[in-house]
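Input.
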Amino acid sequence: MHSTIKIATLAITLAASASSLHAVLIASETFDTYNLSTVDAGVVTDPLQGNNGGTGFTSAWAGSGPGQVETGAPGFTGNYASVTSSIFDQYRTFPSVTSGDLWIAWKAAWGSPAGSDGSVGYGILGLFNSGGTQELVWVGDTNGQGDQLRSTVAGVGVNHFTITADAVYQFAIEITNIGAGAGQSSVNIYSFNNAGELTSLRSVTGVTINEVGRLRLWGGFASEPRFDDIYIGTTRDSVIEPSIIPEPAAYGAWLGAGVLGLCALRRRR
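Output.
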């Protein structure tokens, strides 16, 4: 009897593992490995430029505006990337993706510039080819668009909704059929909640994307845009599941697999 229970348990474990067998996490950046030691405008910070935190990336943060790592904003656990003055424009590379699909998920918020009318300043997350010569997709708040969350895919911009200052949002980008040829790729942009449930914001087909390999963050004008919990992977589960609890349906699938394993064992006996 005990051996039967052990085998059934093993079957459930294997089934759970199989569901994420092909879910590969390529790189992640939670900004929690940085040593915050500098005080800037009353905020304890550490420069983002030149730092090499996170996992899986092939270069340190670099760019024309240094940015910084901060802590203490409502809705953020631990550190996050931001700027309290001037601008920041930082990028880093990850292992080049030349085929299949790519997902990226992250958390973002936008503060209000000092002395403003309450509108939020700008801050954007974007994906490029490794060399930085081809802008593929970006999502965020931009200059000249009011408080609108905006995305640009293949050079075409669309506004989505009005951003609330200091509210925390979670977004994901899915790029499919990378390297499949002219007009064969697609880009899907989502928001998602703490249960990992996706809400579609935009879907664009007929896009040509041959390679993805660079992450870029930029923003500023004292608006304190914040970015955190950036995950880059090959599937939805690889970038969203690290921070959520599996849905009940998943447990049901694992239990079903365990029952099948138990039945198979009994047949052999």
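Residues 167 and 235 are 27 Å apart (CA to CA).
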